[in-house]
Amino acid sequence: MDERTSLSRRKLLHTLAGAGVIAAADLAWWDAPFIAPRRAWGAEPVRFQWSVPEPTRIALMNSLVERFNQSQKDFAVQIEYVPQAQARQKLISAITGGSPPDLCQVWDNWVGQFNGMGAVEDITARAKTWKHYADVVPTAWQTVTINSKIISLPLAVTLDGIYYRTDRLKELGLKEPTPDWTWDEFLALSKAFTKADKNQYGYGMRGSGTWALLYPTEFAYANGAEVLKDGKVVINSKEAVDAVAWYLDLALKHKVTPPSAATDGFVEIVETFGRGVTSMYQHNSGSSGQQKKNVGVDKFATLPLPIGPAKKRASFWFSETLTMFKGAKNKEGAWQFMSFMLDDEPSLKYNTTLGLLPARKSILDRPVFSKDPALAGFVQSFPIGIVSPYLAYPGWGGKIDSDGVPLIQQAMLGKVSAKECLDRFAEILKKEMT
């Protein structure tokens, strides 16, 4: 890293601090690696692809990579930022071309596809002798284990919950919901929040992106449904159809969602909540940091998903992973960086900065996670967390995006029924099982 690069990265940090993205009081931590650039000329390079190149993550990863590079003399991580929309295809092309990066940051639903291509390195032996192995939450290990083989390290974990505006509750004189709330209470609160003449709606439904299908699936589990049972696809069971019909009625019948719900993605559901257009939305802890800036730390809170008619509920576990490839040229360097990222300080800084949850129990128990109202709904969801059923087959992840999301969007617009939507999607999943 030359002096110009160091200055450019430091300028980015100071810009983010000036915008309030990085706390000014923390600027010294972010600055530290760039004050004295490393000069280990003989270090072996480690190619690392990063798939979410937004400013805060870029600043964070630049700082963490330089910390690692300065902590030892044998390896030098070289980070390659790739736009998220292109990242999966770029990795597929690199794998088929025989030149994958040594390491990449991806989601667990991608890893299954890469593993199905025979491209992912089995790190079971390394992981089980790693000093933090026993400290990782067991379900986090499940998200990165296929056929009893550990194929990634879980950098961060997420579960879905419900964000709600506590300031809007007070404004309208509404009762505070409790962690054991029900579908009926969720619907009643959505209706009470909705003032269409003021462009205010109770629930920010998501119609775009993978989670547009995952969110109603979580509601389906609260009605006793499943995606896969005894080796058979049952996502179109009566329980699932009834639950998804109830979910769709939030938009079609009760009109408690914005008119744009069918096309609203991550950015829209986060921004409309921040602007007061919606008073509730479903997401993981990853947007909690953004809402602290948008809304204010004292004006919102989170809850687990509501309990359904089957007297149960579920929240799907996902992990953001660090994954090594079989074709990696520097596997030892890749492993050293992977394990560094889950050490105490890097894991704490990564997760607190981005509003994610650490995979390690000892870090998760710290007050910064366990006592934060913005994270309460997710921490309380641990007992109901299950590994996403859509990780069962490598091809399912891609079919959610290409086929499942367009189907649920049509259902949100009333163009197909819940039954037709799920019947068609079930057939798609069945074909991918072979």
From TrEMBL:
GO molecular function: maltose binding
Entry's transmembrane regions: 12-30
Annotated PROSITE patterns: TAT (PS51318)
GO biological process terms held by the UniProt record: maltodextrin transmembrane transport; maltose transport
Keywords: Membrane, Periplasm, Signal, Transmembrane, Transmembrane helix, Transport
Presence of keyword Transport: yes
Pfam families for the chain: SBP_bac_8
A single GO cellular-component term on record: ATP-binding cassette (ABC) transporter complex, substrate-binding subunit-containing
Family (UniProt): Belongs to the bacterial solute-binding protein 1 family.
Name of the molecule in the record: Sugar ABC transporter substrate-binding protein
